[in-house]
Amino acid sequence: MNVKPVALALAAGVLLAVAHAPAQAQRASAQEQRKQQTAEIPVCAKPLGTLSVIEPEDSVNWWTGQQLPAPSKLIKVFVNKSRCFTLVDRGAGMDAAMSERALAASGELRGRSNVGKGQIKAADYVMVPDLISHNSNAGGNAIGGIIGGLIGGRAGAIASGLNFKKKTADVVLTITDVRSSEQVAMAEGSAKKTDIGWGAGGGLFSGGGFGAAGAGGYANTEIGQVITLAYLQAYTDVITQLGGLPDSASAASAHQAVTVAKPARLLANAAGTGKAVRSLDVGMMLYPTGNKEGAMWEVEDELGNKGWVNSTLLELSK
Predict the structure, then answer these.
(1) Which CA distances in Å does 234 have to 99, 109, 118, 170, 197?
(2) Residues 222-269: pLDDT tens digits?
């Protein structure tokens, strides 16, 4: 038996194993990080309300230059996984729904199709995914964001919170109450290439359902994964801020204002006994307190006078 060829073969095998070990480690690292990050997406016991995710306010669509989908698609994946909100579509799906309603209004749909007014669910909150402007002066003006809007494209994105060369991203998520316009939560997120186990094993978020949601580009590129990690950090933080939200955003918000449609009187009580608080002129705006007794509503005028009025004399303010 010739020992030399066998020894060479064994040595070659050892070298291959050693060379292959870092790639295996990178694969394992990427898989572990993927599982860890997926597990960190907060899961709510019940939805906090309905949510619409819209595109950033910045006129520069920084994602198109990197062949990435709009960031709203990415955030919708997080929302779907966390079950913290019920998503309502205000994009392409909404446009298609309005087209169906237009067909119904024109009489083109079959009878009893049950498509028409009063069926669309309202959004309780709006979430906006955006970039952080790094360069701000003492007065708080987002100089970086302004530069980004003027420059546009790759250079604008760098000025507004992305660095494609260094693979870094600084993002912010904002949640606004649609009824009060209050910003109920805001969180920042940041990530860089070194935060990701990028190697021969593939991407950090591959196989996470992004492809089915139309957000596959964020799983297939380095900058896409960096942006994903930054938004995931921000989403996790913003959800933890929402523990004080009411069970019903609609019920907890101030009631919609009403307008006096016919001459009326503001009564001292729901029974209509006693002296009237004041007379109500047509066109006057009133604010319901939420208290009702039959057809009688308790309202308050703009001067702070409170009393009761028959709801048949009112209409919703337009």
Answers:
(1) 35, 44, 35, 10, 20
(2) 888 888 889 999 999 998 888 767 666 666 666 789 999 999 999 999
CA-based nearest residue to 126, from 53, 47, 73: 53
Asked if the 254-316 domain carries CATH number 2.30.30.40, the reply is: yes
Residue 197, beta-bridge partner list: none
| Tens digits of residue pLDDT in 61-82 | 778 777 788 889 889 989 998 8
Cβ contact 147:131 at 8 Å? no
> Whole-structure pTM over 0.90, yes or no?
no
Please name every residue paired with 267 in a beta bridge, in sequence order, or none if there are none.
308
Q: Is the CB of residue 93 less than 8 Å from the CB of residue 101?
A: no
Domain extent listing, the chain: 21-88+123-249, 254-316
Measure the CA–CA gap between 233 and 226, rounded to whole angstroms: 11
CB 227 within 8 A of CB 171: yes
What SS3 class is residue 315? strand
Token pair of 235, please? 């989403």
CA–CA dist 26, 37 (Å, integer): 16
Q: What's the CA gap between 135 and 143, in Å, rounded?
A: 6
HSE, CB side, 13 Å, CA atoms: give it for residue 61. Answer: 10
Nearest C-alpha neighbor of 49 from the set 256, 290, 254, 245: 245
Contacts of 11 (CB under 8 A, 6+ apart): none
Given the DSSP bridges, would you call strands 125-131 and 50-53 parallel, antiparallel or unpaired? parallel
